[in-house]
Design a protein that fits this description.
The protein is 49% helix and 12% strand. With 719 residues, it is of the alpha/beta class. The chain has four domains: 82 residues, Rna Polymerase Sigma Factor, Chain: A; 145 residues, Rossmann fold, CATH 3.40.50; 149 residues, Rossmann fold (3-Layer(aba) Sandwich), CATH 3.40.50.300; 131 residues, Up-down Bundle (Methane Monooxygenase Hydroxylase, Chain G, domain 1), CATH 1.20.58.1080. The strands form four sheets. It has an eight-stranded mixed beta sheet with strand order 4-3-5-2-6-7-1-8, with helices on both faces. A six-stranded parallel beta sheet has the order 9-16-13-10-12-11. A two-stranded antiparallel ribbon has the order 14-15.
Length: 719
């Protein structure tokens, strides 16, 4: 007890904390080191003799012989054993100093660049004007956020007789038949070269410089491209940050403002029923489950609809867009996620938000339901009434009446200014870290780098969750550091187990120096594949398409080990066509999935869609307590307060609560299902509460007391 008391006294001493900081132990590392040091002393049977003597002197109260501060050298020695970087902290701090990013690009600093910012909302012609300058230049590079956008500029440029290459992570297409490099190139922004000189560069969607995962690519392009003219296009919210960044490089920014080319009207009425759909309508959903549900309901009304969501292959998205845009095609309705926000030209008359809350993941990795931001709402709503389409003006509304007031508030809010630009550690920096810390894993190297990195107020270090996920997954596979780093930057859909296990197999075979052949890939994916018969099979085909993308991406980094890119690209095109067939028959697949699950249920796919699990649990409640499924959900709703989507707008909270209270029992339950505001865990908790109340005979369903309890809502829901 005396030892523990003195150790805790040592930990609390300000002088000891100051000494720790001087030796590279910040508050977090100091705490972790102390916990380990305390455990070593309390549990180890082999404490060194000198430490044993010091502890004895301190505990026996020999003031002249021992003081708790005398433990510091032993503590520091222990800390250096568990944190080896303390011995080379100065070197590591220099390597991870990110305070002067402009200096990383000497070629760009050697020339005086002209920066032109084309600022305006969606459908204002800002990108069009930048592209016109790109086409008239002797040489140029277009940098976009999506493969679809890069492909569009590649096509447009070659159609205008301006030879242009295409470069994405997975694809290289040369305009010249002899594979000579063309003077123009359209690329995804991560793939742009900062060494090649150009006359004109175009950086599209510059506001994405704030993106927590990909922002570093826009920062790199803006600071590093060697072009006489840099044309950046995007939201006015990014003007101030771009101007500040260019001030540090000594370059001035010319701002050209654009207004929307066609009027956009927020309607005073909601759609309320799918019976009120008109040609040119697009219903925007924020989950695949809603996509499936809405598309089926539309088909039940005898209407055809196109479907677009993020995980579809680019070819399928383009085909669905073409089908919807074709005036001679009977398909006049589009059901889509926010994937339509950029990258597709669509002839939309009216945007209808099926919901104004969207699933997000917070900084702790927890799922939340949150109101869409003003920037997101404007980007999506702006797709209506595109200039040059058959609709001369755009309209926007919501599916549900009680969402419309909030949507109007969201759209009327000012977009907050972009405050900081993303940065990311380079392979060279990580290699230098590894030199100093040879025993650290790549995941630990990244953690140490981020914890030691210094950035000024205009920058932030992008989160590296995907990178660390792969680093941990392949840690046990023997790879050299550079190869390991490349594998960790591969595009991976972490939600798809099949894609993750495939990457693991790629890395394992790569480490054995065994080439990943076309035959091997066909065996692994069971190619050839048939058209999907239900939604689960369609989701698997999308995952296989991601696997082919992964192979192609790796083939450009390790050509010898992934030698069959041409063959894989051929079967990927065939797979795209198979997926297109599936999407065209999506309502049949939904019906097949539902009938396979249980007759008369609304379940589609359980693994990816929490709503379907909720409905399954609702049936459990109904089976145990004799209530209809919707009533069972209503019971749950009215027995407890709902944790609603978080919102920074207090004025909306009261009105949302009143709207919810005024909703009928069955319709409220359906609404919660539709918006994903009820989960398995919540339902189990509610069921348990209901059972307790039922046993105690305190009150029944639908009572005033229940309703009062139900109205105590919060705006946040975490799963």
């Amino acid at each position: 007890g005396e030892v523990l008391k003195n150790l805790n006294k040592f930990y609390k001493r300000k002088e000891i904390q100051r000494l720790g900081a001087e030796n590279g132990l910040d508050a977090r590392l100091f705490h972790q080191a102390f916990i380990s040091f305390r455990k070593y002393i309390m549990e180890s049977s082999s404490v060194s003799a000198d430490l044993h003597i010091i502890l004895n002197d301190i505990c026996c109260g020999f003031v002249l012989l021992g003081h708790v501060d005398d433990l510091f050298p032993f503590f520091l020695r222990h800390a250096k054993q568990i944190f080896p970087m303390l011995d080379c902290m100065d070197d590591l701090r220099k390597i991870s100093d990110l305070r002067l990013p402009p200096n990383w690009y000497p070629d760009a600093r050697a020339i005086q660049r002209k920066i032109i910012f084309h600022a305006g909302p969606t459908n204002s012609g800002k990108t069009y004007h930048a592209i016109q300058r790109f086409l008239s230049a002797k040489s140029g590079v277009y940098c976009g956020p999506l493969k679809l956008l890069a492909h569009e500029i590649f096509q447009k440029s070659n159609d205008a007789n301006v030879p242009c290459d295409l470069v994405t992570g997975e694809e290289r297409v040369f305009a010249n038949e002899d594979s000579r490099q063309a003077p123009h190139v359209a690329c995804t922004i991560e793939m742009c070269s900062t060494n090649t000189p150009y006359e004109v560069a175009v950086i599209d969607e510059i506001q994405m410089i704030r993106d927590p995962a990909r922002g570093w690519a826009w920062t790199r392009a803006l600071l590093g491209l060697c072009a006489e003219e840099i044309h950046v296009c995007g939201e006015p919210a990014a003007i101030d940050l771009v101007t500040e960044l260019m001030y540090t490089t000594g370059e001035e920014v010319e701002v050209r403002n654009y207004k929307r080319l066609t009027p956009l009207t927020v309607l005073d009425y909601a759609l309320e029923s799918l019976d009120n759909l008109r040609p040119g309508d697009c219903i925007v959903c924020f989950s695949k489950n809603d996509i499936y549900s809405v598309s089926r309901q539309i088909e039940a009304r005898g209407l055809e609809c196109a479907v677009i969501y993020g995980s579809l292959p680019p070819g399928t998205k383009l085909e669905q867009a073409k089908k919807f845009n074709d005036p001679d095609d009977p398909c006049k309705i589009l059901v889509a996620t926010d994937a339509i926000g950029m990258g597709l030209n669509l002839c939309i008359r009216r945007i209808i938000f099926n919901s104004i809350v969207k699933p997000t993941v917070n900084e702790k990795g927890e799922k939340e339901i949150d109101s869409i931001t003003t920037s997101q709402a404007l980007q999506i709503a702006g797709r209506a009434g595109r200039f040059g389409s058959s609709f001369k003006q755009g309209e926007v509304t919501t599916m549900h009446r009680d969402d419309l007031v909030q949507l109007k508030e969201i759209l009327s809010d000012a977009v907050p200014p972009v405050k900081a630009a993303g940065l990311h550690p380079t392979p060279e920096q990580i290699e230098m870290f590894a030199y100093h810390l040879p025993d650290a894993t790549l995941s630990n190297l990244i953690d140490i780098f981020v914890s030691l990195s210094q950035v000024d107020g205009m920058y932030f270090v992008c989160h590296i969750d995907d990178f660390k996920f792969i680093a941990d997954m392949i840690q046990h596979i023997p790879l050299n550091l550079r190869s390991r780093y490349v594998f960790c930057t591969a595009p991976l859909n972490r939600k798809e187990p099949f894609v993750c296990t495939t990457l693991l197999k790629f890395a394992r075979q790569f480490s054995r120096n065994e080439p990943l052949t076309f035959d091997w890939l066909c065996r692994h994916t069971k190619w050839p594949l048939a058209a999907p018969k239900n939604i689960k099979e369609l989701v698997h085909l999308e995952a296989v398409h991601d696997v082919f993308d992964l192979y192609l991406w790796l083939s450009y980094r390790f050509m010898d080990m992934f030698p069959d890119a041409v063959l894989v690209r051929d079967i990927q095109k065939q797979l795209d066509n198979i997926i297109q067939i599936g999407v065209c028959n999506i309502t049949k697949l939904i019906r097949a999935s539902q009938s396979a699950a249980a007759p008369g249920t609304a379940e589609v796919v359980s693994e990816d869609f929490p709503l379907s699990r909720t409905q399954k649990d609702a049936r459990l409640v109904s089976e145990r307590h004799g209530a209809a499924p919707t009533e069972a959900l209503s019971i749950a709703v009215e027995t407890t307060g709902l944790r609603r989507a978080k919102s920074s707008r207090p004025s909306r909270l009261g009105s949302r609560q009143e709207d919810l209270k005024s909703y009928g029992r069955g319709s409220l339950a359906n609404r919660l299902l539709r918006e994903g505001l009820l989960t398995q865990e919540m339902l189990r908790q509610l069921e348990s509460e209901w059972q307790d109340q039922h046993r105690n005979g305190r009150y029944g369903f639908g009572s005033k007391r229940d309703d009062q309890h139900s109205s105590k809502e919060t705006r946040k829901k975490r799963k």
